[in-house]
Design a protein that fits this description.
By secondary structure, the chain is α+β, with helices and mostly antiparallel strands. It is 31% helix and 20% strand. The chain contains 16 helices and 20 strands. It has an eight-stranded mixed sheet with strand order 1-4-7-5-8-9-10-11, with helices on both faces. A hairpin with a 2-residue loop joins strand 17 (470-479) and strand 18. Helix 3 (114-129) packs across helix 4. It is elongated. The protein starts with a helix and ends with a strand.
């Protein structure tokens, strides 16, 4: 009854934002594992559910494309689920913020500790697989949990088995975190691990001990007077995140006890919801720095071979004239300054530009520059600057064969009559040749692009010219829903947003074979 009422209220109150909820079974062909429980699903008082046999998600979609998605795991001590105040009651609030909200009805472990995690992983898989249909940005899918649901959410954040199941952020309300008998929630511990778990199992599911630098950013809130789940659960998890340089926020309130969820009688409801709204806005509503700084360079004159002017290799930092590579490098360096240094200065810009442009960030002569795109991508992935998005989404590959520079030394000022540089370049070519790279063939790219290509992504145009890997690059930007390229154009002699869709631009170049898509990874 309460669920139906929430859906009705949602339709009336937030109809301009929300769409009809979608209900989907996690395992329509049967779950791969069993908790051994039998009998019917039990509907308890106040909207609680027990003995779940058919795990499912209910999806309250945002009306806005590429929205944040949050998968909510209700609490209940791993023996029942509080589906209302820690589930359905929050749907209108999240939808009003253009957030797609997903409620997970997961199975109880009954001592089979793998059961809840397998359901949570399947839920995030389904959300990402239906991202376009459900108006979700697949790179902004988070997990949320309350009480024992907070343990499940933090377990997904620390025990995910693949990139596909890694949440991008976590929101934890008065969470159970540890399985340490000194301060765990005893009921949750026994229901998850059994009465006498091994020390190894106890440690494995003490999530404060499982945090790494790869753990997703977190928002944690709790009451200091929580008598059911010791506040140290959330506090120690927060400290573990901080020790691992993971961005985290902790909000504690002096009173309120345990289990308040979205209830109006919690005296700090307004405060915690406002803090969460602010955190989601600041941490996840993207300030698209790549696009922001790229657009500031519109109209900058295009000049070829801007790095080839000096007799010796020097760090060229001017933004008054650019080619396609120095345009992308400059935008990336400016974005890094803003995100990592907190402010822009020419000194910071020069340092970031050197980091991007040279192998290992070290300027050691002409051959230390990352001339080939494959080398540039590999090195900047190792440095944590970018990630290869194409490798996640495309199965089409090319085998790199590089010899253009060593085969045409007279085309390059620093190679002509310089056997030492030629030898070093040839060594690099040999190391890279044979590597497989993922790409999107140009025949497969629609005018609107793909939902996973985001404004601000780096787009490299792969080429069929013998001995080369990439012939041009720029930055993805959408105009009226169509994908275009922001780039330093040799034809227009300046930085432009190309009037052609990227698909048409590729089609008009006989040498271009497709694209690679890279994304800054310093968020």
């Amino acid at each position: 009854m309460k669920k139906a009422l929430i859906i009705s209220l949602l339709a009336m109150a937030t109809g301009i934002y929300a769409q009809k909820p979608v209900e989907m079974s996690l395992w329509p062909d049967g779950a791969p594992n069993s908790n051994g429980l039998e009998g019917e699903e039990q509907q308890l008082e106040n909207g609680r559910v027990a003995n779940v046999h058919e795990p499912a998600i209910t999806v309250f979609r945002s009306g806005v494309p590429n929205s944040i998605a949050i998968i909510m795991c209700p609490g209940g001590g791993y023996v029942r689920l509080a589906m209302n105040h820690e589930g359905f009651d929050m749907a209108p609030w999240f939808n009003a913020q253009h957030i797609t909200y997903v409620i997970l009805k997961y199975r109880m472990p009954n001592g089979h500790y793998e059961i809840p995690l397998s359901d949570a992983e399947q839920a995030i898989r389904l959300v990402r697989r239906h991202a376009s249909e459900w108006n979700v940005d697949p790179d902004r899918v988070g997990v949320m949990g309350a009480s024992a649901g907070g343990h499940l959410a933090s377990t997904l954040a620390t025990h995910y088995s693949s990139r596909e199941t890694r949440p991008d952020f976590q929101v934890l309300l008065y969470p159970v975190i540890t399985m340490d008998p000194g301060y765990t929630h005893a009921g949750s511990r026994e229901n998850l691990l059994g009465k006498s778990p091994s020390a190894g199992l106890e440690k494995k599911f003490s999530n404060e001990l499982q945090v790494t630098p790869e753990t997703p950013k977190a928002f944690i809130t709790l009451s200091s007077d929580d008598g059911a789940v010791a506040p140290l659960n959330g506090v120690n998890y927060y400290l573990a995140l901080v020790r691992n340089n993971v961005r985290a926020a902790l909000h504690t309130y002096p009173v309120g006890g345990h289990g308040w969820g979205f209830r109006d009688n919690f005296p700090y409801k307004r405060q915690w919801t406002e803090e969460l709204e602010k955190w989601l806005r600041e941490e996840l509503q993207e300030d698209n720095l790549m696009l922001k700084y790229g657009l500031t360079l519109l109209g900058t004159p295009y000049v070829a071979h801007t790095l080839e002017r000096t007799a010796q290799e020097e760090l060229f930092t001017s933004r008054s004239e650019l080619d396609c590579t120095t345009f992308v490098e400059s935008v990336l360096a400016m974005s890094l300054c803003a995100k990592e240094n907190g402010t822009f200065s020419e000194e910071n810009f020069a340092g970031q530009l050197q980091r991007i442009r040279y192998r290992g960030g070290v300027l050691d002569g002409y051959a230390s520059r990352l001339h080939y795109a494959t080398d540039w991508v590999n090195d900047n992935i190792r440095k944590g600057v970018i990630e290869d998005i194409t490798a996640i989404h495309s199965q089409d590959t090319d085998t790199v064969r590089l010899f253009f520079m060593s085969g045409h030394p007279d085309n390059y000022k620093h190679l002509k009559n310089n056997p030492e540089n030629i030898t070093r370049i040839l060594e690099t070519e040999k190391k890279l040749t044979g590597q497989k790279i993922c790409r999107i063939p140009k025949r497969k790219l629609p005018d609107e692009g793909f939902p996973w290509i985001k404004d601000g992504d780096i787009v490299m145009l792969t080429t069929g010219i013998d001995g080369l890997d990439v012939s041009h690059m720029g930055i993805a930007i959408r105009r009226n829903g169509m994908l275009h390229l922001l780039h330093a154009s040799s034809a227009e002699k300046k930085v432009i947003v190309d009037k052609r869709t990227l698909r048409n631009q590729l089609a008009q170049s006989k040498h271009v074979t497709g694209i690679r898509v890279l994304r800054k990874s310093f968020l």
